[in-house]
Amino acid sequence: MTTGAAKGAIAVIEFFQALVDPDNRFLAYAMAMGGLASIAFGIIGTFVTIKRISYLAGAISHSVFGGIGLALYLQVAMGITWFDPILGAVLAAVVSALVVGLVSIHAKEREDTIIGTLWAVGMACGILFIDKTPGYFSLSSYLFGDILLISHRDLVFVICLDVLIAGIVVLFFNRFFGVCFDTEFTLLRGINTTFFYLFLLVLTALTVVLLVRIVGIVLVIALLTIPPAIAGFYARRLWQMMLYSVLLCALFTWTGLGISYSLALSSGPTIIVLCGTVYLVLLAANKVVFTQNK
Amino acid sequence: METDISLNNVTFAYKKQPILENATLTIPHREFASIVGPNGGGKSTLLKLLLGLLQPDKGEIQVFGTAPEKARQRMGYMPQYAHLDMTFPATVLDVVLMGRLKKSTFWFSKKDRKQALSAIETVDMAAFAHTGFNELSGGQKQRVLIARALSGRPDILLLDEPTANVDHETEENLFSILQDLNRKMTILVVSHDLGFVSKYVKTVICVNRQVVFHPTTLVEGTMIKDIYYGDLKMVRHDHRCSEGGHCRD
Q: According to DSSP H, which parts of A73-182 are helical?
């Protein structure tokens, strides 16, 4: 037991040494990215969770793959060099957010079928584009993320997104609250609820693009929804839920990164397994407490 | 007498089968009416038409002499609470403040807070202003939603089944609050329980594709039969049986 604890302590010390080592700049970038991204994830993830649109966020994130595939194809096969994969991802995310949003408003009965179709078609298009693009691409970094490939430019992007999202949410907090809690009533108060709903989905789309860099397309939904789900156990007000989500998200990405570095594991899946386990354990513990109280 | 709401030959259908057909109705100022009728008979649809959430296929609706959409700021609406997310993180005050949402401002002012708190007081929930909405009982939630409708200082209050799933005592309390409010505003209540509401309201509006207006003094056997398609036995609450019950004498 003592040797285990000692080994653990050594691993932690080694990790912090690696963090400040100039040769390991990627690790410091990854940690900074994790912390900064948590602001956007915690805020948007809270909306996705309370509005119960994680299914829509899933469809958006998989469409991102279509955008990345298209961008790679245009860049490599067609020689349009300025068409960066991140541009393709943003474009695909925003377009799919608007389509998915309009479908969920208007196609009441077939909503889930249509969204499921968009989800799969977006993904499939990405793979077809990559088929037709010469060269080899590591799909797994898109699918499962690779936080260790984070560049200086990504950090600039995430800071811009944080400022954008925090500013918009502070300004429109009451409107988003209304749209999420009771759309019909909010509409009756003279607020354009369709606009704010689509706006929320577009912000979700931008956040998802960012998230894809860290945990990948497949695992996006987990990191977007699990911290708010845990925060929801303890928060009484919407802003509290956001704050707790941001802190939890940062905690999970940092701890997950530390573990994945020490044990030489993929960063995305490590983060997801960590927060998923914590969530399920807390859920079970809360259930036990509740039944005892009754 | 001032007229708050008027419907003129209104027909509405979600698909082909009309839910309301040639409905004509005039509601004077400070009316207290209950909207009753069978499930799917068009009660909630009528409310949604009055709020401008639905548009009539034929006919015309006016609220305060204008289109319903333009009169929304003067109407307070309490929806059925079943469709709200009961795990939503919000305090009672947060929920009630929604009634103060405005197009022109982003944040709530001191005045908004004051109005919201006074609406919470009106429904006797002052002690719970900072309690989580999802920690309340069904009857308390309904009262909070009434406070939300009141916080915008409406001239008409529209309530959709405010007493669904609450016990009889809560129901009595709620209706006596509404009776007080009626001194200042017009109130329309969708209700499934005709026998109970007739004690409080001034008129009953029966909705079952057609719309029929009755003063409560006329609520009697034949009318109940028309609404519920069957003979009913009336239960008298003002009559006490002797201890051993009734014997055949």
A: 85-106, 111-131, 139-144, 152-181
pTM (2 d.p.): 0.86
Domain parsing of chain B, residue ranges:
3-84+158-228
The verdict on a CB contact (< 8 Å) between A182 and B152 is no
Homologous superfamily of the B3-84+158-228 domain (CATH)? P-loop containing nucleotide triphosphate hydrolases (3.40.50.300)
Q: Which two tokens stand for residue B223?
A: 């009318």
Nearest CA in chain A to B151: A189
The parent domain of residue A142 ranges over: 28-222
pLDDT digits (tens), chain A, 294 positions: 567 778 778 877 877 777 777 777 788 888 888 899 999 999 999 999 999 888 888 899 889 889 989 998 998 888 888 888 888 999 999 999 999 899 888 877 778 888 889 889 999 999 899 888 888 777 777 787 777 778 888 889 899 999 999 999 999 999 999 999 999 999 999 999 999 999 999 999 999 888 787 778 877 888 899 999 999 989 999 999 999 999 999 999 999 989 988 898 888 889 989 999 999 999 998 877 766 554
Is A283's Cβ below 8 Å from some Cβ in B?
Answer: no
Number of structural domains in chain A? 1
Q: What ipTM, to 2 d.p.?
A: 0.84
- Residue B8 three-state SS: strand
C-alpha B65/C-alpha A128 separation (Å) is: 60
